[in-house]
Fold:
Amino acid sequence: MLEWKKDGWKAVIALAPMLIILGVFTFYPIINTILISFFPHYNFIKVSYGSFGFDSYTMVLKDMKFWTSLGMTCLMVIISVPLSIIIALLVSVALCSIKKLQGVFQTIFFLPYVTNSIAFGMVFATIFSPMPYGLINTMLGWFGVNPVSWTGTAAHIPVWAGLTVITIYSIWNGLAFKILVFVSGIQGIDKQYYQAAQIDGASKSRVFRKITLPLLSPMVLYITITSMIGALKAYSSIVALFGENMGNGSEGTFMTAVGYIYKFFNTVTSGGATENLSTAAAAAVVLFVFILIVTGFQMLYNKKRVHY
Structure:
């Protein structure tokens, strides 16, 4: 207590700038969103809250489009997150085993991380263009396969085709950060473990399963949680690939949970009913709670599997 009284003000001064920024741009928006969600007739123009109620939550939870969009989001997470982690882990192990040009390869893999997601999505939309002259369709044409409507605003995009593009995009876009974390983790492992395994004549696969993977478990848990949160918030990539309607005209086949939120938010900003802002806020709160629950289960499930 005496040390806190003596030097505590220094910590407060050091933390104050970041706490102010977090308070203005993180904590206040979250609190305000939760508050708005409980006032179905909130009007941001007149700053009128109206009566308190749960009508917005009732509307969201009864809307099948919300559950469909959440289901599509979860499907994207289930497919893309495990694949991206496995690929990133294998690439990281390969990079650490390469001594020459290691920095060059790390830079190449890191480039997508600093690329704008919209621009990146437009590049993928060009590669997977539904037109016959698209790169992938051109390659399929060499084998006599008819063009496939991969992306864009085509009248009908097969679900398997759209999910394929989304999965490849998600893996490539998120690979850089995962590789960076895994490489730093592998380089921090004590080399004595590998030397002992080499003396015992352990195979490379056994070394990976018994030494590398267990000692990387904290990084794996961190990457898993952050990847799931990022995938559950997917929106800009879907818009870049399939347009504002997010697939198949106005059907929104590949609409995500965040896309559902923006659907109501955009109606407000374009001059629509201001009450839709409360609906968007309620959907955001439901998604927020869902992410908290998924993250909590992840941490509890992996508690005994992580070795610090």
